[in-house]
Amino acid sequence: MSVLGHSIQFGGWQWYGDQTLINLIAASTNALNGALLARRPDHFRQYTVVGVILMALLGGIGGGVTRDVLINQVPSALTNPAYITLSVLFGYLGYKVAYGPGQLFREGFFQLMTAFSLPWYAVAAAEKAAAAGIPAIGILVLAIVGPTAGRVYIDLCSGVAPKEFIRSEWFVGTALLTGMVWITCDTAGLSTWWAAGVSVAVGFCFRLLALFRGWEEPLAAEPAGIVVHKPHVLLGRKLHDKSDEELRDLGLLVGDPPAR
Q1: Are 95 and 87 contacting, i.e. CB atoms less than 8 angstroms apart?
Q2: Could you tell me the pTM of the whole model?
Q3: What confidence category does residue 227 fall into, taking pLDDT thresholds of 50, 70 and 90?
């Protein structure tokens, strides 16, 4: 079949092969997480069923597409229909299981699946980067981008600050650690699945420990004496008749308040 001289192909479905299977595991589990995240109370914006599935696609293939574009390759999700198929199926599964009896969000299940899928995507990204001849530092960058880009897209679409930039249980750190372990295993000559298994196990266990022990990235230190301005633009007449206390709260009046 051809349209305007172009040959239309229906894709080469591929379900196995070391790197393909690892990538499909990463895509499907992240699609499940994407649907769960879209249904989470802090992200839900009255999404339709189609909206939830699209969020699942962002989670499932967003990281892989971003990774492939960065290494100047046609995204695997566009050449192998298995990626989109599994992302849609697992997205629908996530939509169905997001809430339990009494309409309580399954937060524990969501966190467990995030801890599981995060290192898988980091390994998939590291393998793809190494196969493209990217040096070690670039492999580590893509090991972070792969598992986190999809989350950025979902957070931005939901009007939420991306998880990578706020305090959390070492979300980015888990991806980085997994990438470092994979490089070590690959350098030591381990086979594809041994390197992947060890890396995923380390990343998964670290993420679970961070969740249970409450390990979080340190917040940025604030300079001493910093004035935090309220998010309001007040100029001209808007400042008229403001009390000294209100002006001080806005950082527009210097000096200590009078003693009472």
Answers
A1: no
A2: 0.80
A3: low
